[in-house]
Write a structure and sequence with these properties.
The protein is an alpha+beta fold and about 450 residues long. The protein has 2 domains: about 210 residues, Nucleoside Triphosphate Pyrophosphohydrolase (Alpha-Beta Complex); about 160 residues, Nucleoside Triphosphate Pyrophosphohydrolase (Alpha-Beta Complex). About 25% of the residues lie in helices and about 20% in strands. The protein is built from 10 helices and 18 strands. The strands form 4 sheets. Strands 1, 2, 3, 4, 5, 6 and 7 form a 7-stranded mixed beta sheet that branches. It is globular, with a radius of gyration of 23 Å. The relative contact order is 0.18. Bound molecules: zinc ion. Zinc ion (ZN) binds next to loops. It is an enzyme of class 3 (hydrolase).
Length: about 450
């Protein structure tokens, strides 16, 4: 089954972390990143992982815990008390139709613009609701976590059918942007931005899960939030089923022909020409991940797989098919047979590619150019100069050097890139300006 993987991205310079709201967490991420310059896997390296708000949840009794924060939030909203204690501060990230509120600022020198998340204070949000004649209620807010360093609690809210003026007044420099666009616009070496991207991905996944779990699947009654929106339960007293946020595991595998030093890459029926990537598919109930790798590979290409070796995993909250969050679980899969029979209902093409061909695709891809294009698009949107078009139509994904590379492969924000590059360049740490924090398949 197809999982959409886009191309692109990444300049090499690290920017400072002056805007990062969680200095100690940022430091720990920095350490993790610097420690990963060897060929070991850096679990913070994948886009949408390394969320600084997910590293620790406060225990019950802590004033920043979900229950205590919810109580404080309830008091401030229901009492309309604007003069209450400023501690803790509440920061809310609004979403509209799955798009987070964002801003953009100029980069330094020749570097691309830098996007940021559009956090709003509680009083500002309440004012925006009041101006629109909408009611801000506690149940709309979903707890993301807190930060003791800045004494703040972070929330997300879906404002899709409310407060229409939010994001439309470009004087404020704020607009709602597709998460995929932000993903491509993110400088992969900027840990602050990578952390922000992960926060937005987590928030988007939680809000989408809330949207489609409004009714109990057992009795049909309405569900209500629990634990400040981190869980839900059925409102029917005779049912009371608990409902947990949904994660869908997807296997993604680079199938390797050891004998002939080739890798199997497939082209999905999509508009992005020349894009070849790893095979992938959802796991079935009752199936192990390794079994899913073998089954999907056989179904889509007729190749039989023997050994299956885990590589790394990546949260993927930007799938196009209304699934809140897939967990991409990456593997190397070693082929036992080599003859390809393409399932034309799933794939347009599948071929064995030599290591040399794959190296060319990685070497001549213009990831940095694509990142700049997306970052400039976000800047234009926040100025009100461009509408939110689909990503595929914006990006010149054919920008890879066709003279030197016959195919293009997904960019560094996709786990497919890391599977492919760690096989193709198993002897190098940096490829085309992108740091490879990946396991060498020859070491497995
Ligand atoms: Zn129920």
């Amino acid at each position: 089954m197809f999982i959409f993987q886009f191309l692109l991205l990444l300049p090499p310079t690290l920017r400072c972390f002056s805007k990062f709201p969680f200095p100690q967490t940022a430091s720990s991420l920095t350490r993790a990143f610097s420690q990963s310059t060897s060929m070991s896997i850096n679990l913070h390296s994948h886009a949408f992982s390394g969320n600084p708000l997910l590293s620790k949840f406060p225990l019950p009794g802590n004033p920043l815990s979900p229950s205590a924060a919810l109580e404080a939030l309830n008091a401030r909203i229901s009492l309309n008390n604007t003069h209450s204690s400023p501690s803790p501060s509440f920061k809310v990230l609004p979403f509209r139709n799955g798009r987070p509120l964002a801003s953009s600022s100029a980069g330094t020198g020749d570097s691309p613009p830098i996007w940021d998340l559009g956090w709003l204070g509680l009083d500002d949000l309440r004012g925006i609701f009041e101006n629109s004649g909408a009611q801000l209620s506690v149940d709309l807010l979903v707890y993301l976590n807190s930060s003791s360093e800045d004494d703040a609690v972070y929330w997300a809210i879906d404002v899709s059918d409310k407060v229409p003026e939010l994001g439309s007044n470009n004087a404020a420099g704020l607009c709602f942007v597709e998460l995929r666009t932000l993903m491509v616009a993110t400088d992969w070496s900027d840990l602050q931005l990578m952390g922000n991207l992960a926060i937005a991905g987590h928030a988007k996944a939680l809000l989408e899960w809330h949207n489609f779990s409004r009714f109990c699947g057992h009795c049909g009654e309405k569900t209500v939030p629990m634990e400040a929106g981190r869980r839900k339960k059925c409102s029917n007293d005779s049912c009371k089923k608990r409902i947990y946020p949904r994660v869908d595991p997807v296997v993604i595998m680079l199938v390797i022909d050891r004998e002939n030093d080739r890798a199997l890459l497939a082209k999905r029926p999509m508009r992005i020409a020349r894009l070849y990537t790893c095979l992938s598919g959802f796991t079935e109930p009752g199936e192990s991940l390794e079994e899913a790798v073998r089954r999907e590979t056989w179904e889509e290409t007729g190749i039989e797989v023997g050994e299956v070796v885990y590589h790394s995993s990546q949260p993927w909250p930007v799938a196009p098919n209304s699934i809140p969050c897939q967990l991409m679980v990456g593997f190397f899969a070693y082929a036992k047979s080599l003859e390809i029979t393409v399932d034309k209902t799933e794939l347009e093409d599948a071929q064995w590619f030599s290591r040399e061909d794959v190296r060319k695709a990685l070497t001549f891809a213009k990831y940095k150019q694509a990142q700049r294009t997306a970052a400039e698009k976000v800047e234009q949107m926040c100025k009100g100069l461009e509408k939110n078009r689909s990503l595929a139509s914006d990006l010149n994904v054919e920008s890879a050097d066709e003279q030197h590379a016959s195919i293009v492969v997904p960019g560094p924000f996709a786990i497919a890139y890391h599977l492919i590059s760690s096989w193709a360049f198993s002897d190098q740490n940096v490829v085309n300006g992108v740091e490879c924090n990946s396991k060498n398949p020859s070491d497995l």
